[in-house]
Specification:
Shape: flat
Distance between the termini: 74 Å
Number of helices: 5
CATH topology of one domain: Jelly Rolls
Radius of gyration: 55 Å
CATH architecture of one domain: Sandwich
Structural class: alpha+beta
Number of strands: 13
Largest sheet: 7 strands, antiparallel
Strand content: 15-25%
CATH class of one domain: Mainly Beta
Helix content: 10-25%
Order of helices and strands: HEEHHEEEEEHEEEHEEE
């Protein structure tokens, strides 16, 4: 179907062709160009040739217009096919999964119809004259003539009203002397319909242990949402089923932060000049509620150093080169595996440190040594910042790694 714009263009072209044709006829009737001083009239053949030229121009216009429209349609179909291919690739559908198209073969011969069943003519039914279906042929049934009344019989008065039957003036006084002895049952049925109490939905899990107890844990799923505050403020955590030293399995709630990878520390000489500043995907209130709902929490911390002190005291200062900040914002001068504010590392408790210091890094070794261990003070976790120093020299380097918060 042509659009409105094409219809207007066609009408304009037809009108122009008509005017052009009339103009040619007028020129042929009047006169033509003057050649060699004489006037020459157009012949009928010249007019026919001009008319054919106009018709050919009209045909070319319509042909190229339709061809351009078909080209546009084919381009749109190609774009749709490319977009469909992108969607199929995104959905994981491949060509071998798509069923083959059914070849539609147009029959060359007209379809053969089944032969029509022969129509059985209805038998003609003749009715007797007395049961003809036409009611006009029925004769009226004769009515019986009433017999005349006997002589000397009074004529009945049709206007006289019938006499009413008198009502009885006395009521029957006989009453039943005995009353039925059947009485209603005095006892009520003890069986009552049993109603099932409404089941309350289970509470929203606060930790991964609650998820495991409610049967919602799946090894194929890593991330879960818990609500430690029970205020529909969810925290996305990882749930891991870890083996314990006693041989049992416990569900662990893992909260990660933005500085999970190892960071290089160099060019920071002053005490606590380097700052790690990890960011957790939970608020302080949610983290405190998670620690309160768990039996125990821990966070692993590791420092690999070369010529960089950790728990040593810098000159003219009262604190240590390195320390970490707890959830309450307090500085803790100790390392993983040692009590809080003891200015020691794990090796300082059993006397296995390199050199005479309380940490391996305090020996200023020319080779890399490591101080690592878990921080187990639940009321202080998670670690909100790690501060380090003594890495201003060319050969003084450190690598810090802070693990996620893990709560049982």
């Amino acid at each position: 179907m042509r659009s409105g714009f094409q219809t207007i263009q066609c009408q304009r072209l037809i009108n122009m062709a008509r005017l052009h044709y009339l103009w040619l006829v007028l020129l042929a009737l009047l006169t033509a160009e003057n050649t060699s001083g004489q006037y020459q009239a157009y012949t009928v053949q010249d007019i026919a040739d001009l008319q054919n030229t106009v018709l050919y121009e009209m045909f070319d216009y319509f042909y190229f217009a339709q061809e351009q429209q078909l080209t546009t349609v084919f381009e749109r179909i190609s774009n749709i096919e490319s977009r469909l291919q992108v969607v199929m690739d995104a959905l994981g559908l491949h060509e071998q999964e798509v069923p083959d198209e059914v070849d539609i073969v147009r029959p060359t011969a007209p379809p053969t119809l089944p032969p029509r069943r022969p129509t059985i003519p209805e038998p003609e039914v003749t009715y007797p004259p007395f049961i003809q279906p036409n009611r006009g042929n029925r004769k009226p049934r004769p009515r019986p003539t009433p017999s005349p009344p006997p002589p000397n019989t009074p004529r009945p008065n049709r206007r006289q009203k019938p006499t009413k039957r008198p009502r009885p003036t006395t009521r029957p006084t006989t009453r039943p002397t005995t009353q039925p002895t059947t009485t209603a049952p005095t006892t009520r049925p003890t069986t009552q319909p049993t109603t099932t109490p409404p089941t309350t939905p289970p509470p929203v899990p606060s930790t991964c242990a609650d998820i495991y107890e409610q049967g919602l844990y799946s090894p194929s799923q890593s991330m879960y949402s818990v609500d430690p505050l029970q205020k529909s403020k969810f925290v996305y955590v990882k749930c891991e089923l870890a083996d314990q030293p006693d041989g049992t399995e416990r569900m662990v709630t893992v909260v990660e932060h933005t500085k999970m990878s190892t960071k290089k520390v160099t060019g920071f000489e002053a005490r606590g000049e380097f700052s790690l500043q990890p960011v957790y995907n939970a608020t302080v209130k949610q983290l405190r509620a998670l620690s309160a709902a768990s039996e125990s929490c821990s966070q692993y911390i590791e420092y690999r150093c070369r010529g960089a002190a950790l728990m040593a005291q810098p000159p003219r200062e009262s604190g240590t080169y390195g320390f970490w900040v707890d959830i309450n914002g307090e500085e803790v001068e100790s390392w993983g595996g040692a009590p809080a504010n003891s200015r020691m590392c794990a090796c300082g408790l059993d006397g296995t440190c390199v050199g005479e210091g309380s940490c391996n890094c305090d020996s200023n070794s020319k080779t890399f040594v490591t101080d690592a261990g878990p921080i187990s003070e639940k009321e202080r976790l998670p670690v909100t910042d790690v501060r380090l120093g003594d890495t201003g020299g060319k050969k003084e380097t450190g690598y810090i790694k802070l693990g996620p918060l893990r709560c049982l």
